[in-house]
Design a protein that fits this description.
With about 120 residues, this protein is an all-beta fold. It contains no helices and 11 strands.
């Protein structure tokens, strides 16, 4: 089992910045990929950014150049630095950890990000 605890959400004005943190514990040695997802009211949950154990990252197009995902192996923590925030970034952000063999997926409890215009 893997436990994920998110922190760092809040309310900011457009153009501002926030940094989300996701602390992982448990059987983290099995984790191959960690990502940040978000879900806005009335919309499907979408992948925002992800990072493999090797450090390869991927981003959804709408956040490229504004968001950065990183990983601190010593602290077992993944971060999402969000700059130049827009009102359309408003959502609940979830941390996700994926294990490929055997396939398992773990989720954090979510943290609210609200961007006002």
């Amino acid at each position: 089992q893997v436990q994920l605890v998110e922190s760092g959400g809040g309310s900011v004005q457009a153009g501002g910045s926030l940094r989300l943190s996701c602390a992982a514990s448990g059987s983290i040695f099995r984790i191959n990929y960690m990502g940040w997802y978000r879900q806005a009211p009335g919309k499907q949950r979408e992948l925002v950014a992800g990072i493999t154990t090797g450090g390869t990252t991927n981003y959804t197009d709408s956040v490229k150049g504004r968001f950065t995902i990183s990983r601190d192996y010593a602290k077992n923590t993944v971060y999402l630095q969000m700059n130049s925030l827009k009102p359309e970034d408003t959502a609940v952000y979830y941390c996700n950890a994926n294990q490929w063999l055997p396939p398992k997926s773990y989720w954090g409890q979510g943290t609210q990000v609200t961007v006002s215009s």
